[in-house]
Amino acid sequence: MLTLNPQTDTNVLEFTLDGSMTRPEFNQLIVQAEEMIETFDKIRVVEIIKGTTKVTPNAILPEQKWEPTHLKHLTHLAVVTDQKLNESMVTPFRLFINAEIKLFKLNELEDARYWINTTED
């Protein structure tokens, strides 16, 4: 399940992924990200991953079309998780995106939020 954690008047997109993500949920995330890109141009993301995460094939396909054109707007990515599998999956993203990526454990969520809000571009 995807849960958007709204932030007010900021370029920070925060969401929690707990279990599987469906296409409608992914579409909701895309709409939010696109609105923020339209407003701020550059965005920062806090992705909180809980439990075993699954993304349905229908959710993945639109992502393949969205990411290449929008990732240039991402400047910072804080991945908050205790899942080692998820941590190992983040490393390859450094090859494809220009954003600064930092990993945090679930009990370091406040540290992740502080980092995402105070790190300079």
What layout of secondary structure does this protein have?
Blueprint: E1 2-5, E2 12-21, H1 23-40, E3 43-55, H2 57-70, E4 74-80, H3 84-90, E5 100-104, H4 109-118
Mean pLDDT: 82
Which strand order do you get reading across the main beta sheet?
1-2-3-4-5
Strands, count: 5
CATH C-level category: Alpha Beta
CATH architecture: 2-Layer Sandwich
Structural class call reads alpha/beta
Main β-sheet, in a few words? 5 strands, mixed
SSE run: EEHEHEHEH
**Count of discrete alpha- or pi-helical segments spanning 4 or more residues:** 4
Radius of gyration from the CA trace?
13 Å
Please state roughly what percent of the residues sit in beta strands, choosing from under 5%, 5-15%, 15-25%, 25-35%, 35-45% or over 45%: 25-35%
**What does the overall shape look like?**
globular
Low-confidence stretches: none
CATH topology: the name is Transcription Regulator spoIIAA
Number of separate domains = 1
Assign a percent range to the helix content. 40-55%
Termini distance? Answer: 31 Å
Structure description:
With 121 residues, the protein is an alpha/beta fold. It has a single domain (2-118), classed as 2-Layer Sandwich (Transcription Regulator spoIIAA), CATH 3.30.750. The chain contains 4 helices and 5 strands; from the N terminus they run E-E-H-E-H-E-H-E-H. Strands 1-2-3-4-5 form a 5-stranded mixed beta sheet, with helices on both faces. Helix 1 runs parallel beside helix 2 (57-70). The radius of gyration is 13 Å and the shape is globular.
Could you list some keywords that capture this structure?
121 residues; alpha/beta; Transcription Regulator spoIIAA; 5-stranded mixed sheet; 32% strand
